[in-house]
Amino acid sequence: MSRYNLKRSLYWRLSLSFLLVLLIVSFSYITITIIASDKYYQETTQRLNAEVAEYLLKESPPFKNGEVNKEALGVIMHSMMAVNPGIEVYLVSPDGEILSFVVLDKKVKLSRVDVEPVKEFIATKGEKYILGDDPRNPGEQTIFSATGVTEGEKFLGYIYIVLDSEKHENIAAAVSGSYWLKVGLNSFIITLITAFSLGIALIWMLTKNIRVIIQTVNKFKEGDLHARIPESAHKGELAVLAGTFNSMSDTILENIEELKKVDQLRRELIANVSHDLRNPLAIIHGYIETLMMKSDSLEKEEVDRYLKVVLESSEKLTRLVSDLFELSKLEAGQIQMKKEPFFAQELLSDANTKVSLLAKNKQIEISSDLSEAAPMVFADLSMIDRVIQNLLDNAIKYTPEQGKIFLQTNIKNGGVEVRIKNTGSGIAQNDLPHIFDRYYKIDKTELGIQGTGLGLAIVKKIIDGHDANIHVESVEGEYAEFIFNLPAYSA
Length: 491
What we know:
Blueprint (H helix, E strand, L loop, with lengths): L2 H6 L1 H39 L3 H8 L3 E2 L2 E2 L1 H14 L4 E5 L5 E5 L13 H9 L6 E3 L7 E11 L2 E9 L3 H56 L14 H58 L6 H33 L6 E4 L1 H18 L3 E6 L6 E4 H18 L5 E9 L2 E9 L31 H11 L4 E6 L3 E8 L5
Parallel strand pairs: 9-11
Antiparallel strand pairs: 1-2, 3-4, 3-7, 5-6, 6-7, 8-10, 11-12, 12-14, 13-14
């Protein structure tokens, strides 16, 4: 595999995608863990210190006669310094105004706090995780402890204690940052290496079968039309893909073989048609040349005989060219069937009349059994007339002298069945499957029969255009019978 293909291979693209996903998941995991741990620490700290405000209130009431007790605040300062110098104590009025505070470095930036979180904290007795305003950091929130202050029956305000002071936050952030950097980095590296190694191995195994498929497809593309994907080595969707490719390859191979056969038949048709065209042209040319060279010495009877031969040859040429054009139009779908209702038995009777003279000349007997009960059919009158005429012409050609032709119509499957049967040599069994093929021509030269060889192909195309069917039954040496169906007319 070239360097370019290696970089663009599915294996490496999947590997890099997997690595990117691992990095995103790892960073997300570390971020979520740090946030969750920080929240866990804050919630734990708040619950452990939920009653701190109550203790301070009992130790030193911050109000005396409704006014701020400076002495009590001093006691609170000393108590706070002894117990936890990191906490901040605020005395807040009922509407949230900061009346006084005990803070070590005096950096208080807010003049009031939102009392709604304070009320909720007192109502839940500190059992619920609640954040309140941080007076030293406007816009930020922090954990706190709070209690209401009353004197007699008069509500004076709140003791609001910030448990996570700015100093504590800075120290905790530095320590936790260092801790999580070590833990997170080690975990991240170990997890990343392990997961990436396993992922690479799994991707290699998963893409192994795909590589086999790609190699097989490339072989097929390069001309090895018999290259197939081993289906037993694949499962699931890859097995379906392998089966589909193999089926497609078989179909392509069959189509190629069929095209070769069609091309061979086409060549044979061109050779036959060329031969059929060459013969009458040669005859016409020869007799006209004779007439021109010996016009003064020929008797009138000889001239008439020569002209008759020329006329017959030109008629043969006309029929051949006409049949080729008509078949080409039928195959290209350029002829639209103009359907109308008519009686098929009447059409057969008329056709019988047309060929009766030819049949009489060969002493051929034509008999018929045309059902008067047969309904009208719905088809193209001129096209079906052409079908019957072609089949009758064939029957007369292939029926020997004193032979018989039989015409019949029957009611079948709600339509009309037409049968045209003639005695004679019949059709060989190996010729029957190809009898309607435009490229197939039965050799009847030993019978002295001439024709374009396209009549039955035209018949088949016309019948197909009526969504009907035609077939032939034959016993070699006895008879041949052509049978086709036409749909009945429904008003």
